[in-house]
Amino acid sequence: MMGIMENKTKFTPNPKSKLMDQVRETLRYYHYAHSTEKTYCQWILRYVYFYDKKRHPKEMGGREVESFLSHLATHGKVAASTQRQALNALVFLYRDVLQIPLDQSIAPIRSKRKPHPPTVLTENEVERVFAQMKGTHLLMAKLIYGTGIRLMECIRLRIQDIDFGQRQLFIRSAKGGKDRTTFLPRFVHDELHEHVERVKKLHRQDLEQGFGEVYLPNALARKYRKAAWETSWQYVFPSKSRSIDPRSKKERRHHVLESGLQKAVKSAVRKSGIDKRATVHTLRHSFATHMLENGTNIRVLQDLLGHADVKTTEIYTHVMRKDIDGLQNPLDRLYSKSN
């Protein structure tokens, strides 16, 4: 049985609005991230189109949801995490928008989990990749490899999340809504400090031009009404230009897009001649593996990475370099006898 979470707070969207407008209204009431809004809307539309728009979702229920999720697994061959994402979107639709909770016994055909060992770069390969990068993208890549933070955690860093004195990074509302602390590498300390000073100067220019407001979650924006204009709340990696916020319609300077760093790392891997499917996330995998190889306690590493379960951290023990120099290979032994 696939579990379905209950939501204590109740909100009723405008019944006169179209279905997708009701979905967006409810998502925004509960302060879901813009990326989650886009994802949930896509899954809900796929569900509606799966039944050729002949029936409104409120006329369907658990049986139809189960059939749709099973189709994703058997015909779409989607990953288990993708199937779970689709379920979460439909649970939200029925529970929070239509307020018709789904049957707890939904049991679709499950997508099979296929555990794959993570791709890891050697220290030499990381150095070769960095040699092909420059500017802010290089600084971000160094920060991810040197701290083990995720791509979006890096991009969403605020100036106040860096403690240069204690050499620490504070990761706020990370995966699972949890906060954690990791260390700041000495190697990027000065470079990051200079970068932050340039960001502060950019912010002062925005303020002089009548802008300078940054996005804050609604709860924080209500509690700290002037915080959005303060330097400490500005993004460490802001975009080069201001843009219109799709929800508030205000002109703000948001953080950089994740696609920029993704493309930069992909290009650097190709130019360095490394024949591995390495991405930005590979830098996080490499951080974890190299920390274990250098003797870091796995529980400490679990905290640094923000893993809820140590079993997730243990996957890196399967790809870390083992001390096998003293072992004799059977092929070498076979031919040493003949010689």
TrEMBL record:
This is Integron integrase. Pfam families: Phage_int_SAM_4, Phage_integrase. The lineage of its organism: Bacteria, Pseudomonadati, Thermodesulfobacteriota, Desulfobulbia, Desulfobulbales. PROSITE patterns: CB, TYR_RECOMBINASE. GO terms for biological process: DNA integration; DNA recombination. Coiled coil: none annotated. GO terms for molecular function: DNA binding. It comes from the Bacteria. Keywords: DNA integration, DNA recombination, DNA-binding. Gene3D superfamilies: 1.10.150.130, Intergrase catalytic core. Belongs to the 'phage' integrase family. Residues 116-332 form the Tyr recombinase domain. Residues 17-98 form the Core-binding (CB) domain.
